[in-house]
Design brief:
The protein is an alpha/beta fold. Helix content is 28%, strand content 17%. A hairpin with a 5-residue loop joins strand 1 and strand 2.
Length: 159
Amino acid sequence: MKREDYLSWDEYFMGIAVLSAMRSKDPSTQVGACIVNSDKRILSMGYNGMPRCCSDDEYPWDKNDSALDSKYLYVCHAEFNAILNCAVGSVKDCTVYTTLFPCNECAKAIIQSGISEVVYMSDKYSDSDSVIAAKRMFDTASVKYRMYKKSDKEVTIQL
């Protein structure tokens, strides 16, 4: 008889996104993403961080009124990184699992890359212009999005 407490596919892929978010050095918001094809194979992962060759000790991590002294002009978002990090070429018709609903900029990259579904854990910025615009674009481009249904499962990893 097989065991019955194994992870569902959604739990597994969202778990990978959560684990990826733990790589982020952002002190206030850690976001992770995991891109999966229709065969349930992980094609790529990403987290929010500074671009390659841009030292995260040199660039700001603060939220600041001065744009050049704020993280927002520099940080690459998790979904964008996952799309760029994909080594197999195409993410067309794939699903992206992300810990935070994508912003408008990531929504454009998701649509342009051909990703067909977004599964998100949090929508804490749902009232922001960025997320409203993202949802509008997803609706127009027929990109499905759905909130991840949290389970009561707890996973402990000792590293």
